[in-house]
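User: I'm putting together notes for a lab meeting next week and I want to include a structural view of one of the chains we've been expressing. I don't have a solved structure, so I'd like a prediction I can at least talk through. The sequence is below, exactly as it appears in our construct file.
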Amino acid sequence: MKTLIIQTRPGIGDLCVFLPAIHEICLHNVNSKVDLLTKERTCAKETLEHDPYIKNIFFLENFQKSNLNLIKFIKKNLYEKVYIFHYGIRYPLICKLAGVKNVYFYGWIKKNENIVERSKASCAKWLDNQNLNFSYKIYRKNIMPSNNDTIILGVGGSGPTKKWSTDYFAKLIEEITKIKKYTFLIAGGIDEQTVAAQLKKKFSDIKIISLCEKSIKESINLIDGSKIYIGNDTGFMHLCAGLGISSYGLFGDTPANYSDYSNKIIPITPRGIKLVGHGTMGMNKIYPEDALEKVKEII
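Assistant: Thanks for the context. Below is the predicted structure for the 299-residue chain, given as structure tokens.
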């Protein structure tokens, strides 16, 4: 028997948010081969390289231009069950046209809701089980020893309003170094190469390593075992949490409840703002001393 899971959101963080529910589906269908169909930007093949539950990973971009090709793909693979973490008619209809017997999906009309709670509630309903664990873990082939001398700084983000300033990161490095000298891994993408270069230039006497030019696979190998993550609400924050690293996320322009799926993510929110959401524009109101106060006890 074969099962397909469709997760349509595009980011690494999105994949991580849905991973507890995805794993519950895999555990429920223990006698079935479970495949995942998702977006390329999730970097699912690198992130889930050693996942014991996901058999194959395919990308939706290969079928964007033709619903017929997606129907043929699903039909050819003889999926008996398809779980769709998405609203709308397109994917359920495609699955039915492909002859899938059991199709589970959110519903026809998209709602404004917490994506973590929606994934959990739907999964519990689909599996007819209200006592699911929803544990979050990114599996590794080899368990890395803890490196208590390394801190990850997450400088990336999906937009400028979701990023802490370079000056704030610099101030945080200064204050942490007064307590203990650490190696800092600067976690971001190509767009953050300048930030990494500026920090390396400013702190020439501190070991600072940029991950901005590296692949996700290379970055996971380097960050695994680090002491803590401090930084923006970005893919690296979610990856670190999945690797068991305490991750202090700066939530100034995204809902902090997006982190509810993992007890390894500790939100840091702006001073004086009770409810953070899209459009709060509060990253400049999370001060370096606020972040330092949160992590002081464990560094």
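A couple of points you could mention at the meeting. The two ends are 49 Å apart (CA to CA). The first strand starts at residue 2 and ends at 7.

User: Perfect, that's what I needed.
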